[in-house]
Design brief:
11 strands, six-stranded antiparallel sheet, single chain, mainly beta
């Protein structure tokens, strides 16, 4: 059992894979919080850093994936590339509900509508909504156990929860 003052931040994605209106698979995957994300929290809460008001979720392409690393940033992540094969114009917004019981999650799922036959390796959270962009603060990354195949018009319903 953790002591009351033991603070360990972690997160997880819960994903429903929908095809033709039916849930065909469900996934729950933990994320790794990258160094720049942890530094952002420390800088914002205990120094004079700028607060991020909106976070976004992106997809990671299976093509060329080798690994996530703690040192990844949005502008430098040699082991992976973003998957932009979805209908939404920008990365979808993660809209957090109120924090309760040492956790916070989006009140309604983030939706991706896949626009091609594609294998997806994982997800990430960033402060920039530009689909395929390299600006912003990378918060966290997560990988499926193996790549997941999607077809045109499949839908991902994503809930992201952060625990403290």
């Amino acid at each position: 059992m953790r002591a009351q003052n033991d603070f360990r931040i972690s997160g997880r994605f819960t994903i429903e894979h929908v095809r033709d209106g039916k849930v065909i698979a469900e996934y729950e995957i933990p994320n790794g919080i990258v160094d720049v994300g942890l530094n952002h929290i420390l800088e914002t809460e205990f120094h004079d850093g700028s607060h991020v008001t909106t976070w976004y979720i992106g997809l990671v392409d299976d093509a060329g994936f080798s690994a996530f690393a703690a040192g990844n940033t949005m502008s430098s992540h040699a082991g992976w590339v973003e998957c932009t094969s979805y209908d939404e114009v920008n990365r979808p917004t993660w809209t957090a509900g109120a924090a309760t019981s040492r956790q916070i999650a989006n009140a309604s799922p983030v939706i991706f509508t896949i626009s091609a036959v594609k294998n997806i390796k994982g997800l990430f959270v960033t402060s920039n909504n530009s689909k395929g962009g390299t600006a912003g603060t990378l918060w966290a990354t997560a990988t499926f156990g193996s790549s997941v195949p999607f077809v045109d018009n499949d839908v991902l319903r994503v809930t992201y929860t952060i625990n403290g």
